[in-house]
Design brief:
310 residues, 0% strand, 15 helices, mainly alpha
Length: 310
């Protein structure tokens, strides 16, 4: 991880000064469960009065203020995972309950007088994207967040790990760029420019917010939960020497041959999540984490023929 960038935000600075430095942080504040009417209170005081971890709030403010921001390991140790999950949950509600509704209405007005084909194409693209976003959020709400909250209660789920979320995490902001280009380049030249501008303004704002949302998941939630998993369920050392099942041996051989998770899933007609779970169990039982190490393990245990690598 590259060296952490720093910013001038401090717990003692006034909340009003922080928001004035970057108006986008007003949205962060609201989604963190903080509100207005804080008078001359500092960031620390506002957070304390509303039960929010100050370090977590400032960390998210840095994500929204510094392009490509990556927190250090020391900073991640101060994160309140529950506050991160709550922030992401509130962001989902904001996107689906407000922004997408506003965007859909703006696209409807913009395409109202377009020819039927153009209207159908643009609106159809948006509807498909909206469905993809809902599916993405439902997976996080129904699978990822409950898992994280259970971990916080010291309840480990052997059938899931944050690694599965990381490997199957998609960036939902990318298609917005395509929609932006379509609107900018292919709306009729004699169309209402203000209606086009309104759609583009919402799209650009949403895309930037989603980029930050993804960064918080990938660079804060995932590593923080990884650390939590290692504390809650340090199973590797206690389980070394446990025998691999027949299916785990098959998965191990496939990994040693350089097959990807999706290829293994297709070969054995199982889900990619099941493959990841098997790989997690293989690592837990053998104590070996790298593909090279697992290959050597397979060779030494006569699971694969050494001549296959000559």
């Amino acid at each position: 991880m590259k060296k952490e960038q720093t910013y001038h935000f401090t717990p003692k600075m006034k909340m009003a000064e922080l928001l004035e430095s970057n108006p986008l942080l007003m949205g962060v504040m609201l989604r963190m469960g903080l509100g207005f009417g804080f008078g001359e209170e500092s960031v620390e005081e506002v957070c304390k009065h509303r039960g929010v971890n100050t370090d977590t709030f400032l960390l998210i403010c840095n994500v929204y203020t510094i392009d490509g921001y990556l927190p250090s390991n020391e900073t991640l140790k101060k994160v309140d995972i529950k506050d991160i999950v709550n922030y992401l949950h509130q962001s989902h509600s904001y996107y689906t309950g407000e922004i997408l509704t506003e965007l859909e209405a703006a696209i409807g007005k913009m395409t109202e007088h377009c020819d039927a084909a153009r209207k159908k194409i643009i609106q159809g693209f948006f509807v498909a994207y909206k469905g993809e976003m809902y599916k993405h959020f439902q997976y996080e709400e129904n699978t990822v967040f409950p898992y994280v909250m259970a971990l916080l209660k010291h309840q480990d789920d052997e059938d899931f790990s944050i690694e599965q979320f990381e490997e199957n995490h998609t960036n939902i902001d990318e298609k917005l760029g395509d929609l932006q280009n379509i609107v900018m380049k292919y709306m009729p030249a004699d169309g209402d420019n203000m209606l086009i501008y309104n759609v583009l303004a919402i799209l650009f704002t949403l895309q930037k917010d989603l980029e930050n949302h993804t960064s918080i998941e990938d660079n804060i939630l995932v590593p923080a939960v990884n650390k939590l998993e290692s504390r809650i369920a340090p199973k590797t050392a206690a389980s070394e020497g446990e025998e691999l099942s027949a299916r785990e041996k098959e998965i191990l051989v496939s990994v040693a041959k350089g097959m990807l998770n999706k290829e293994i899933a297709d070969q054995y007609n199982i889900s990619i999540y099941t493959v990841i779970t098997h790989r997690k169990n293989i690592t837990r039982k053998t104590g070996i984490k790298t593909v090279a190490g697992l290959t050597v393990y397979a060779l030494l245990n006569n699971l694969i023929d050494v001549n296959a690598f000559e």
